[in-house]
C-alpha cells in the first residue's frame, strides 16, 4: 500500500495520571490555534510492510532515540534538542506512535530503526535533510541504501514513508515546539484557557494509504460485463437505426418516384393538406351542355341557353381562395362528369348556384361534403378511389411503421405470386409452415372478425372513364396487378377439390387456403391506418424497445 | 357523426319508407338513427320461404364514405352469412373497397333479398356451406329449410 497522503495535526490529551481515559481519547485542535499540515504529494513509500487495507497507520509523532554517541552528535544538526521524544510523552501507556527522523547516515538510520522497533510504532516518516521541495528520490535511489542489502525492510515491522526535505524540516521544527508544557506551545495561553494546563499537546500523524477507489474484483467484473452489454446494445441499436434510416430514405425515394403508392397499398392513410385542397378547382355548378335533355332533364331550373354564360361568370365563392383563373374553370366545367347530385349527401346540384369541388378525376362534390373527408380521412376520391394528391406526393415524414408495413405487404405479395405460379408443392401434401399458418390465422381473424375494419382499394376503376384515367395515371400504380392475379386462386382450389372424389379431408386446408387468399387480396385493399397507431400501442417498455431497436417486431 | 351524415340517413330513411321493398319492415329509432332493425321475410321462391329474419343495419361514423354493416340476428344457413353470433355479411357493394358513397340503403336491402333467393357461393364467407351449395344442393336445401324451421319461425 503506497501512501496517498500524510496528515499532521496537533492533538490535546489529558495526563493519564490525573484522569483515566482511553488511548484514543484526544481532541484534535483547530488550525487557528495549532499546527496542521496536510501533505498530499511528494510522498515516497519506501517500505509498505504490514499495512493492510483499511488499517491506516496513525500515532503521536516522536523522534526515536539514538544509541551511539557519534550518531547523537551528528543528529544535533538535524534534530532540535527539544524535539518530541518518547520521554516527552506520558510514560507507562502504550500510545500508537509514528517515528519521525532525518535520513542522514545509514549507520544512524539503522540505529533509529532499532530503537523504533522497541516501541509501539505504527509507521516511520523520514526525510532527507535539505532545502528542496522536490519529491523524495525513488525507492531504488542509492541515497536510500543502508548498506545491508535491504534487510532493514524485513527487520522493521512497520512501513516507512519518505517526505520531501522541506516538509520534513517544517514538521521537525514544529515537533520541537510541541514537546513541553502546554503553555510553552504556540498559542499556549489560549490553549491553557481552553483545557487543563496539565494536559499534553503533541503532534499526531495519520497516513492515508487508501488507493483512490480500488473496486473489489467482482464488482469490476460486473461493471465490465455491464459495459459490454451496453456496448452491444448501443452498437446493435445504432446499426438498426442506420438500416431503418436507409429503408426510410429508400421508401421515400420510391414514393417520390411514384413506384409506391402508400395509400393504395394500405401502408398509410394519407390526407390532403389544406393548401393543396384549396388548389383544387372550386366553381359554380352549371348544367353541362350537350346531353342535358337526355341525362338530367329535371335537373335544370334554367333554360339550356344559359349554360355558356354561366360558365363564363363562374366565380369563386367569397372568402374561399381559388388558384385557377377563369379560363381553366370553364374548361374543366365543360369536361366534368355530368353528375347531377352530390354523391355524398344525395342532394341535387342547383345549376348556377351550387359551389362544387372538382377532384382531379373529374368527380364533383359539395365542398362541404368532401372537404372534411379529404382533410381528415383519406386522400382518395370517394367515388373512384383515385388519389387526389399529385403523383410522387410524399408525406412529410416516413415512419418506421410505414416502412415495416410496406415491406410486409411486399413480402406477402411476393409469396402470393410465387405460389400462384407454382400452385403445387407444399399446398397439396406437405405440412403448412408455421409462418403460413400464423399469417393465415392472423389475417383470417381480420377477415372474419371485423369486416368493417377493411376498406378502400385501388382496383376499382370502373367509374373512371378512359379519358379521365390518363391525366392522373400515377394514382393507379402497379398495386392492382398482383391482386387480380391472386383472386382467381380460390376458384382454382375449388376446382381441385371438386376433382377429388372425397373432399372432407381437404376441407380444412381449403378453408385456410381460402382465408389466406382472401387475406392476400385484402392486404392491398385493407384500410390504410390513419395514424401510426401501432407505434403507440403496446406497453411502455415495448414502445421503448421499438425506439431503441427500430425494425424490431 | 357529422350532421351531413345524419341528414343523409334521414333522407334515406324517407326513401326507404316511401319505397320499401316487399317483405321488409324497417324499425327506426329516432334516438339512435345509426342502427336500423329490419325484419325480413324469406322470399317465397327461396329455401328460406316462411322464415322471418331479423337484421341489424349499422351505419359507421364515416358513413357514407364507408358501407353500412349488415348482420343477421337470426341464424341462417347461407354461404354468404357468417355462421357465428355475428351473422355478418361482406360481399358485393357491402365490401368496403367496393362501396361508393352514392350507393343507397335500398340497394343494400335489395341485394340481401336477391342473395336469399340466389346465394353467391363464389364469394362466400362460409366455404363449407358454399361447397355444399355447389355440389350437394339437395343437402343444402334440406339444412337451410331445417334451420328456418328451427330459428326463423
TrEMBL record, chain A:
| Segments of this protein annotated with the region Disordered | 291-332, 413-553
Q: Which SUPFAM superfamilies match?
A: RING/U-box
Q: In which pathway does it act?
A: Protein modification; protein ubiquitination
Q: Residue ranges of the RING-type domain?
A: 342-385
GO terms for CC? membrane
Subcellular location, principal? membrane
| Feature: compositional bias, Basic and acidic residues | 506-516
Segments crossing the lipid bilayer: 218-243
Instruction: Give the Low complexity compositional bias ranges.
Output: 476-490
UniProtKB keywords: Membrane, Metal-binding, Transferase, Transmembrane, Transmembrane helix, Ubl conjugation pathway, Zinc, Zinc-finger
Q: Where in the cell is it found?
A: Membrane
What membrane topology was assigned to this protein in its record?
Single-pass membrane protein
Spell out the Polar residues composition-biased ranges.
Answer: 322-332
Name of the protein? RING-type domain-containing protein
Q: Which species is the source of this protein?
A: Polyplosphaeria fusca
The organism that produces this protein has a lineage beginning with:
Eukaryota, Fungi, Dikarya, Ascomycota, Pezizomycotina
From TrEMBL, chain B:
| Top-level taxon of the source organism | Eukaryota
What broad class of enzyme is this? transferase
Report the GO molecular function annotations. Answer: ATP binding; ubiquitin conjugating enzyme activity
Query: What would be one Pfam family of this protein?
Result: UQ_con
Domain UBC core: where? 4-153
The enzyme's E.C. designation = 2.3.2.23
User: What does the UniProt keyword field contain?
Assistant: ATP-binding, Nucleotide-binding, Transferase, Ubl conjugation pathway
Which InterPro entries did the record assign? Ub_conjugating_enzyme, UBC, UBQ-conjugating_enzyme/RWD
Q: Which PANTHER family match?
A: UBIQUITIN-CONJUGATING ENZYME E2 (PTHR24067)
Instruction: Specify the protein name.
Output: E2 ubiquitin-conjugating enzyme
What organism is the protein native to? Answer: Polyplosphaeria fusca
Source taxonomy = Eukaryota, Fungi, Dikarya, Ascomycota, Pezizomycotina
Amino acid at each position: 500500500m503506497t501512501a496517498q497522503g500524510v496528515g499532521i495535526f496537533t492533538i490535546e490529551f489529558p495526563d493519564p495520571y490525573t484522569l483515566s481515559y482511553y488511548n484514543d481519547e484526544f481532541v484534535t485542535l483547530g488550525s487557528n490555534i495549532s499546527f496542521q499540515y496536510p501533505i498530499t504529494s511528494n510522498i515516497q513509500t519506501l517500505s509498505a510492510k504490514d499495512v493492510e487495507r483499511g488499517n491506516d497507520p496513525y500515532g503521536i509523532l516522536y523522534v526515536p532515540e539514538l544509541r551511539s554517541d557519534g550518531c547523537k552528535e551528528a543528529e544535533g544538526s538535524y534534530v532540535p534538542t527539544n524535539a518530541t521524544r518518547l520521554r516527552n510523552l506520558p510514560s507507562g501507556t502504550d500510545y500508537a506512535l509514528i517515528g519521525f527522523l532525518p535520513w542522514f547516515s545509514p549507520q544512524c538510520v539503522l540505529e533509529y530503526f532499532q530503537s523504533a522497533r522497541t516501541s509501539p510504532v505504527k509507521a516511520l516518516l523520514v526525510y532527507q535533510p535539505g532545502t528542496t521541495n522536490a519529491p523524495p528520490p525513488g525507492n531504488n535511489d542509492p541515497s536510500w541504501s543502508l548498506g545491508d542489502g535491504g534487510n532493514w525492510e524485513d527487520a522493521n515491522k512497520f512501513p516507512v514513508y519518505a517526505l520531501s526535505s522541506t516538509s520534513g524540516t517544517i514538521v521537525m521544527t514544529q515537533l520541537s515546539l510541541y514537546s513541553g508544557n502546554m503553555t510553552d506551545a504556540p498559542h499556549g495561553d489560549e490553549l491553557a484557557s481552553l483545557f487543563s494546563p496539565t494536559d499534553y499537546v503533541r503532534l499526531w500523524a495519520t497516513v492515508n494509504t487508501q488507493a483512490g477507489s480500488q473496486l473489489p474484483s467482482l464488482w469490476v467484473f460486473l461493471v465490465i460485463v455491464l459495459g459490454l452489454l451496453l456496448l452491444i446494445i448501443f452498437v446493435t441499436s445504432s446499426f438498426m437505426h442506420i438500416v431503418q434510416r436507409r429503408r426510410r430514405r429508400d421508401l421515400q425515394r420510391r414514393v417520390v418516384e411514384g413506384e409506391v403508392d402508400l395509400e393504395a397499398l394500405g401502408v398509410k392513410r394519407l390526407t390532403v393538406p389544406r393548401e393543396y385542397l384549396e388548389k383544387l378547382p372550386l366553381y359554380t355548378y352549371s348544367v353541362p351542355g350537350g346531353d342535358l335533355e337526355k341525362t338530367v332533364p329535371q335537373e335544370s331550373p334554367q333554360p339550356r341557353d344559359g349554360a355558356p354564360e354561366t360558365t363564363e361568370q363562374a366565380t369563386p365563392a367569397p372568402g374561399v381562395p381559388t388558384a385557377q383563373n377563369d379560363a381553366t374553370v370553364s374548361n374543366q366545367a365543360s369536361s366534368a362528369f355530368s353528375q347531377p347530385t352530390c354523391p355524398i349527401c344525395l342532394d341535387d346540384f342547383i345549376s348556377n348556384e351550387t359551389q362544387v369541388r372538382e377532384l382531379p378525376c373529374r368527380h364533383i362534390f359539395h365542398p362541404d361534403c368532401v372537404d372534411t373527408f379529404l382533410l381528415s380521412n383519406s386522400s382518395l376520391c370517394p367515388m373512384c378511389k383515385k388519389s387526389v394528391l399529385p403523383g410522387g406526393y410524399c408525406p412529410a415524414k416516413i415512419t418506421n411503421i410505414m416502412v415495416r408495413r410496406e415491406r410486409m405487404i411486399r413480402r406477402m405479395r411476393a409469396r402470393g405470386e410465387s405460389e400462384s405460379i407454382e400452385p403445387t408443392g407444399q399446398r397439396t401434401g406437405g405440412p403448412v409452415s408455421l409462418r403460413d399458418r400464423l399469417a393465415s390465422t392472423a389475417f383470417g381473424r381480420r377477415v372474419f372478425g371485423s369486416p368493417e375494419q377493411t376498406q378502400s382499394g385501388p382496383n376499382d376503376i370502373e367509374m373512371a372513364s378512359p379519358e379521365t384515367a390518363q391525366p392522373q395515371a400515377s394514382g393507379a400504380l402497379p398495386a392492382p396487378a398482383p391482386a387480380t392475379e391472386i383472386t382467381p386462386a380460390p376458384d382454382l382450389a375449388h376446382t381441385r377439390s371438386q376433382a377429388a372424389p372425397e373432399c372432407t379431408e381437404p376441407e380444412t386446408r381449403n378453408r385456410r387456403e381460402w382465408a389466406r387468399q382472401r387475406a392476400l387480396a385484402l392486404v392491398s385493399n385493407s384500410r390504410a391506418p390513419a395514424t401510426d397507431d401501432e407505434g403507440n400501442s403496446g406497453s411502455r417498455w415495448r414502445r421503448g424497445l421499438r425506439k431503441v431497436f427500430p425494425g424490431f417486431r | 357523426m357529422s350532421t351531413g351524415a345524419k341528414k343523409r340517413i334521414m333522407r334515406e330513411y324517407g326513401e326507404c319508407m316511401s319505397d320499401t321493398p316487399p317483405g321488409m319492415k324497417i324499425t327506426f329509432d329516432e334516438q339512435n338513427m345509426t342502427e336500423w332493425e329490419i325484419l325480413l321475410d324469406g322470399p317465397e321462391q327461396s329455401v328460406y320461404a316462411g322464415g322471418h329474419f331479423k337484421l341489424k343495419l349499422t351505419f359507421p361514423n364515416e358513413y357514407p364514405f364507408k358501407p353500412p354493416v349488415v348482420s343477421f340476428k337470426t341464424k341462417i344457413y347461407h354461404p354468404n352469412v357468417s355462421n357465428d353470433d355475428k351473422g355478418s355479411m361482406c360481399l358485393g357493394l357491402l365490401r368496403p373497397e367496393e362501396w361508393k358513397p352514392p350507393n343507397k340503403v335500398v340497394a343494400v336491402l335489395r341485394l340481401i333479398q336477391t342473395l336469399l333467393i340466389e346465394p353467391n357461393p363464389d364469394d362466400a364467407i362460409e366455404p363449407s356451406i358454399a361447397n355444399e351449395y355447389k355440389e350437394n344442393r339437395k343437402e343444402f336445401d334440406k339444412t337451410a329449410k331445417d334451420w328456418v324451421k328451427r330459428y326463423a319461425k
